[in-house]
Amino acid sequence: MLKILYFAGLRERLGQGSEELELPAGVSDVAALRDLLAARGGAWESLLTLRNLRYAVNQQMARLDSPVQAGDEVAFFPPVTGG
Q1: For 45-67, how does the pLDDT look when each residue is reduced to its tens digit (9 = 90+)?
Q2: Which keywords, in A-to-Z order, does the entry hold (predicted)?
């Protein structure tokens, strides 16, 4: 199982803050996971279109080519501004 977290405006757009997903064969990095989720269509496509989307694997900042494996926690979050 893979735990996936969605933060800030992304959480609101998707209508959920987290989910658990059985890691499909062929998904071995953050980019492949992002593409798999975006393929759901609708609001999920924002995972491909949001500018400066950030990623973390097991609470460490990650890149699209960072590996993922069963048991990992992967977080997606857009840049957040404050004031």
Answers
A1: 999 999 899 999 999 999 999 99
A2: Nucleotide-binding
